[in-house]
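Sequence and fold:
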Amino acid sequence: MVEKRLGALPVAAEFLRRLDVAGIVDELCPGGASAHLSHGQVIEALVANRLTSPAPLLRVGDWARTWAVEEVFGIEPNLLNDDRLARALDAIAPKLEQIAGTVGARAIAEFGIDVSRFHWDMTSMSVYGAYPVEEQDQEYPVIGYGHPMDRRVDLKQVQAGLAVTADGGIPVHARVFGGGAAEICQVVGAMKGLRKMAGQQDFLMVADSKLVSYPNIAALLQAGVPFIAPVPAAQVKDEVYAALDLLSAAVVDWVPERDAGKEPGEREVYRVLEDVHTLPGPRKSDPVLTVRRILVHSTGNAAGQQAARAKRLARAGEDMDKLARAAGGRHYKTREKVAARIGVIAAKRRVVSCLRWEITENEAGVPSLAWHFDQEVLDAEAQVDGWYALITPLPSRPIRGRS
């Protein structure tokens, strides 16, 4: 008796059938049919392999023998050799975007997925090795230097973008970009792909702060695509948040899923203000972009920031007390050594802005330390707790600016 693993193969096979992955691949990549397998059948087997055994792509035939691939997909394991897999992957490579887009559209239609809102995110993957440009196929994304998100500027990279629906988090659009591809290429490409997928229906693109750059916003505004994204922290100064009147902000009638089971008084509360925000271009000749800025206050975020600050202050206080006791001792005999240690503590505990200290010396030159936290600075920091900003296109009607 031969035992094989079944696992999720029947589920994967059913979804692949409903999405018609084999049919879509064979239609877009004809010429792969043989007496044994078409390109579409091979790709379906590889999808099942990725879902059930996400290991390096090798010994797929051995996987098929261990799992019930022949019984579920009707594919003999011996046919999934490296040569056949390579021919199928080479065949679909020029058509990847069309295949992904068609399968995504099929999923939307087959399962009734709501496409009124897409969440788009970009990332980069750094790689080790030379990867000479002349040895890479220029028709595909080229591994090269760029602006990696892991800040490993010494390594080359490849970039990728993924869009999922708000309805169930279903991935419906993915693209790969060269390491040196500009950010605007990613956003515009995603925007076109999602528009094609959504058909006549308008959709909202939700992204993170990496979307907020002049070229990206200019392209989205020109195309008339609604979007919303958080403004990078560096673009809104603390003074802006400190000047806001929390009591005049409107309470948002929305409850996060994590708070759904809590009593009303225990739930996170969101309040909003809004105004008009401008984005200047990198060149003087660039037109200034005008967008709607939504200033949001979250009691949950505020509580988290307050707890984090209290933790930093407590740890910094312990370190400073320990240093005060050790000042003048074997390790901190001089003013300079005490000051150097204070600098380390302030940087490590992130209390540079509020830590105040004074080193004095007695007649014998033995240093002593007195310190405290500046309460005015801490009060100013507390004023901006919980605030963040979002930007989105201006509505058709004028909005009321902040006074």
